[in-house]
Amino acid sequence: MPELPEVETVRRGLATWVVGRRIASVEVRHPRAVRRHVPGPEHFAAAIAGRTVVDVRRRGKYLWLPLDSGDAVLGHLGMSGQMLLQPADAPDEKHLRVRFGFADEGPELRFVDQRTFGGLALSEGGADLPAEIAHIARDPMDPDFSDTAFVAALRRRRTEIKRALLDQSLISGVGNIYADEALWRARLHGLRPTDALTRPAVGRLLGHVRDVLAAATDEGGTSFDALYVNVNGESGYFDRSLAVYGREGLPCRRCAAPIRREPFMNRSSFSCPRCQPRPRGAARG
DNA sequence: CGCAGGCCCTGGTAGC
DNA sequence: TGCTACCAGGGCCTGC
Fold first, then answer.
1. To the nearest whole number, what is the mean pLDDT of chain A?
2. What is the pTM of this model?
3. Domain boundary assignment for chain A
4. What whole-number distance in Å separates Cα of residue A24 and Cα of residue A22?
């Protein structure tokens, strides 16, 4: 569920609360949370303890905390990951995975993750950009994202447009929710073949992707339940603004046709049957 | 190489 | 009531 707007909301919260603070202790409560850190949980904890957080950065759905050692704590929230600032004496969350205590004895940083798809790792020398995520494309809010290169790369693909939007090596930060929302705004069905889209059509779609990501970030992200929250445990409000996602059977906000839901990659796609006609030859869901 | 699909997880809920 | 089945889904990995 956390896509770019949700991760950016968390990044901003962390930037406010942890930059400039020295980490005094690291406690890994569940080894799966640091499974991407090959040297293991003990190494993870030892390499971070004593270091100061100097920044909080993001690319797509990945976050990282550059440390004064030149390394970085790299994190992904997966589906249910949370980064929470909590008083040190607050009771442990049920799904607390990693706890960071600070030398100033102020609020702790806690990584909480119910479904454990998320995780943390120490990226050696990764303060600027962790090598582990070098394959992740820039996201569309990155000032160095190239629109023309994206349009060209997308049109070279031999796949469907929604699959391309979800491909983090082509454009990062977009997940199932915002892909559906951007496609609705662009009046494109997700099964449209990428190589049949014109440059202007892809350019318009990219504009809608950017618009919906920006609007959702302004609202603090989207949340349907208590799983996604910012660092203070608060939910965003963008779910009120969704046009198609999760709105099966409800009227399209443009034309009032009932929103349809179709199976897609073991999950669901939502679209308007009138504004977003299924392309010729595409199998019915 | 590009692309498609399986798998990892667990809490909530629908259905019987 | 209590059980089971299913669903949510991002990214890594494998196989074609």
1. 89
2. 0.93
3. 4-133, 147-271
4. 6
Task: Name which CATH class applies to A147-271.
Answer: mainly alpha
**Active-site residue flag, A138:** no
Give pairs for A196-205: CB < 8 Å, separation 24+: A197/A154, A197/A155, A197/A161, A199/A151, A199/A155, A202/A150, A202/A151, A202/A154, A202/A155, A203/A147, A203/A151, A205/A161
Does A219 qualify as catalytic in the annotation? no
pLDDT tens per residue across span A190-248: 999 999 999 999 999 999 999 999 999 988 776 544 455 666 666 676 777 889 988 88
User: Which CATH architecture does the domain made up of A4-133 adopt?
Assistant: Alpha-Beta Barrel (3.20)
Helix or strand or coil: residue A81? strand
Q: How far is it, in rounded angstroms, from Cα A149 to Cα A241? A: 30
CA of A264 to C1' of B3 (A): 16
Distance CA A22, CA A109 (A): 12
Protein CA at A263 to nucleotide C1' at C5, angstroms: 18
Residue A61 is among the residues annotated as catalytic for this protein: yes
For residue A78, what are its two tokens? 């997966």
- Whole-number distance in Å between A211 CA and C11 C1': 25
User: Token pair of A193, please?
Assistant: 């073949």
Condensed to tens digits (0 to 9), the pLDDT of residues A148-184 reads 999 999 999 999 999 999 998 899 999 998 999 999 9
